[in-house]
């Protein structure tokens, strides 16, 4: 029987996926400036306001100026940095590097993992609180946005560690979590038979992200975005 409870800080981990190389955009999306701070710093501060057990930030571990700038950007914050030396392989690898850290920590199956990206410029603290409260143990809390006829169930997502342990190894390339559930609403773990239920929360504004220069240009006025203050070759 599933138990309904509000998530306590002691069993919420936030993972910020910030290892993308922004190749289609042309500059580091993590360092885009919004309201006098970078998108990366903004997401860390939002995560910290949830008062979670911990915040993990996955960064590209490369020997180049952008990577160094990202590590410098997170240095003042109380977060655990997860190195991703192969960021070009896509989001799945970042998720799996974060999972390795959680495995090393021997976190409990009941630990909830809230995954964020840096480029959903419209996400608010209220959104994250909505995704983090009144959760059943076996619910997969996902954001719903996109077309009403074919909604996207995607990130931010709040998943139990037991689900990630059972399914996270299946992630490949840049598809992220959506590949795990497609349009299923019930998923059964092959390891222990646990039945997981998808629980979408309607957050239509989260369909706005920044992958291309055209998207940046489209969003920059509404969200007061500026390109990184320093360009890297």
Q: Judging from the principal axes of the Cα atoms, what is the shape?
A: globular
Helix-and-strand structural type: alpha/beta
Largest sheet: 8 strands, mixed
Order of helices and strands: EEEEHEHEHEHEEEHHEEHE
Q: What is the mean pLDDT?
A: 90
Describe the strand arrangement of the main beta sheet, using strand numbers. 6-5-2-7-10-9-12-11
Count up the domains: 1
Terminal CA distance reads: 55 Å
Number of helices: 7
Helical content band: 25-40%
Can you tell me the CATH class? Alpha Beta
Q: Which residues sit in consecutive blocks of at least 5 with pLDDT less than 50?
A: 1-6
Organism: Faucicola osloensis (Moraxella osloensis)
Domain MobA-like NTP transferase: 14-184
Pfam families: NTP_transf_3
Keywords: Magnesium
């Amino acid at each position: 029987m599933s138990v309904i409870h509000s998530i306590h800080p002691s069993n919420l981990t936030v993972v910020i996926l910030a290892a993308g190389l922004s190749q289609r955009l042309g500059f580091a999306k993590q360092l885009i400036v919004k309201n006098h701070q970078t998108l990366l710093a903004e997401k860390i501060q939002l995560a910290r306001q949830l008062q979670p057990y911990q915040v993990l930030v996955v960064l590209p571990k490369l020997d180049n100026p952008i990577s160094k700038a990202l590590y410098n950007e997170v240095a003042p914050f109380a977060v655990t940095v997860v190195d991703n030396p192969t960021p070009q392989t896509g989001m799945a690898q970042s998720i799996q590097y974060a999972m390795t850290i959680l495995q090393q920590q021997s976190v409990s199956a009941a630990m909830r993992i809230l995954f964020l990206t840096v480029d959903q410029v419209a996400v608010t603290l209220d959104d994250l609180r909505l995704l983090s409260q009144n959760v059943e143990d076996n619910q997969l809390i996902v954001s719903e946005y996109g077309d009403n006829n074919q909604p996207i169930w995607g990130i931010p997502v709040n998943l139990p560690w037991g689900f990630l342990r059972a399914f996270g190894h299946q992630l490949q390339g840049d598809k992220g979590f959506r590949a795990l559930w497609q349009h299923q609403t019930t998923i059964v773990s092959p390891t222990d038979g646990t039945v997981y239920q998808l629980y979408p929360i309607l957050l239509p504004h989260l369909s706005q992200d920044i992958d291309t220069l055209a998207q940046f240009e489209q969003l920059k006025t509404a969200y007061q975005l500026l390109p990184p203050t320093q360009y890297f070759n």
